[in-house]
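Morning run. Coffee first, then this:
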Amino acid sequence: MTLAVITVASHHFVVVSTYPRFRLATREFSLSLKLAAKTFRNKRGELIKSGDDKYFASATKTRSEVRYHINYLEDFKQLLRRHRLDEPGLVEWRTAPNYNPTKISLAIRSHFVPTEDQEKAINYIVDRSRPNNKAVIMQAGAGKTLTAMIAAAKQGELIGIFVEPRYIGQWLKAFEENCVIAPKRICVIGDDGTKSKMGTSDKLKSLINMAFEGPVPYDAIIVSSTTFRNYIEAYKTAGSAKVLEETEGYGVPPHLFMQHLGIGLRIIDEAHENFHFVFTLDLYTQVANSVALSATLFNDDDFLNKQINTAYPIHQRYIVPGFNKYVNAYSLHYSMREPRKIKSQGSMGYSHVEFEKSILKSRNMTEAYFTMVRESMRYTYDLNRQSGDRCLVYFATIDMCTRFTEFIRREYPYLDCQRFCEEDPLENLLTADISV
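And here it is:
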């Protein structure tokens, strides 16, 4: 008697069962993959959560379908043995079918010549004999984006790029600078800077419907992580592909998205950011090849670091050793005239956000604090400033960034001083003399 169906895909496996013993087993396994939200006590002594619990697994609302990372498959098999659910005939094992990705022809501009490290990374990405959940670790500025583009051109299959929304413009610019490609050959599911009347979810549904008619007319598809996360959440709520289409209008469920579009190479940029989404994306991925790009693929939290190393085992990564150092760090010591007016403790201990809020409550204190920062800039930026030198000033709050930008523009009327927060243009960071 078959009690469960387990389907193994490229990046995950999915367990489908309504049998109580199997559901107890999946519940036990899922709880072992839970990152509990941090808690604290408020002023009244009440225990408060600082967020939601996060599971490094995924399930439909009814829990009839549960998904785990492919690199947890052997651990799950051991769980089945402990629960005596591994006897012959109890589980029907299936393998997600392979598919033929859509072929593309992407040309890299001829003046780009890969460095030795980039060439090794390119060969690593396109090597099909390696596990297809690859990771390229290079320091910022070493050319991760260009490396991935050259590898994509060499592989010659439709590219799916998954990024945080703020990086979409950066990738569009990189395509323009690095590749010979018409803008119409790049599909953006997210905010592409145009005033489109169609929402991002509607763009995704339209793209899915287009693929029913035949190969999509694109070489690259850039997908906002926010949009795809909403797609996954809609599927989890619906519980099945049929209900998802009937209630939300998505023609295919998220775990069939890659093959439906014909994507041959999945690229995740800045994989260390919002890693819970990156991990969850694997739970809905069946693709021929994939690579994650990062400069810092690790976390100070032991549990999160375990999940990172599960998805991207260290021995399977391509790591460019060493980091070029471009800055020196100096400590600046200062005192507060009225420290009692300063709040610096938040729910989790020291909070620089609370510190800055306290500063901004006093006009005199704000002016003094900004003047102190301005004086430190005088010695570290002004005195030896040469043409092309730029200055970055970091604060913890948007309000502080906004106020300091106004202040520093008055101090440096002859320089381009810009704020870079939230939806501010990337050029404010890349081209301004002083970026806050």
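The longest strand covers residues 289-294. Good start to the day.
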